Amino acid sequence: MGNAWVALIVAALLGIVLLIFILQNFESTQVEMLFWNFSLPLGVTILLSVIAGALVMALVGGVRIVQLRRAVHHH
């Protein structure tokens, strides 16, 4: 079995687990951020928080990679 199929199966299983998590945590919660105030299901709130954290870490990692590449090219 190729790597692409393995990745596809793992992604599908993760998607199913995330869907189950969201459906089991569907009670609404109040979210306040800066000047926004809204209500979302708890599972969706946690999922969005994880996605936001991953994006911040990817941004920080990308900036660091650019810094290292520049340092290598200058030497």
Describe the structure.
The structure is a single chain. The chain has helices at 3-24, 42-74, and strands at 28-33, 36-41. 0% of the residues are buried. Strand 1 and strand 2 form a beta hairpin. Helices cover 73% and strands 16% of the residues. The chain has 75 residues and is α+β, with helices and mostly antiparallel strands. It is built from two helices and two strands. The model has no long low-confidence stretch (mean pLDDT 89). The longest helix is centred in the last third of the chain and has 33 residues, at 42-74. It has a two-stranded antiparallel sheet.
Oligomer: single chain
Q: What's the pLDDT, averaged over the residues?
A: 89
Q: What share of the residues does DSSP label as strand, in percent?
A: 15-25%
CA-to-CA gap between the ends? Answer: 44 Å
Number of helical elements = 2
Low-confidence stretches: none
SSE string, helices as H and strands as E: HEEH
Q: Look at the helices and sheets and give the structural class.
A: alpha+beta
| Strand count | 2
Largest sheet: 2 strands, antiparallel
Question: What is the alpha-carbon Rg in Å?
Answer: 19 Å
Write out the strand line-up for the largest beta sheet, numbering strands in chain order.
1-2
The shape, in one word, is flat
Helix content: over 70%
Give a summary of the structure in a few sentences:
The protein has helices at 3-24, 42-74, and strands at 28-33, 36-41.
Topology:
Blueprint: H1 3-24, E1 28-33, E2 36-41, H2 42-74
Antiparallel strand pairs: 1-2
Provide keyphrases for this structure.
single chain, 75 residues, two-stranded antiparallel ribbon, 2 helices, 2 strands, 73% helix
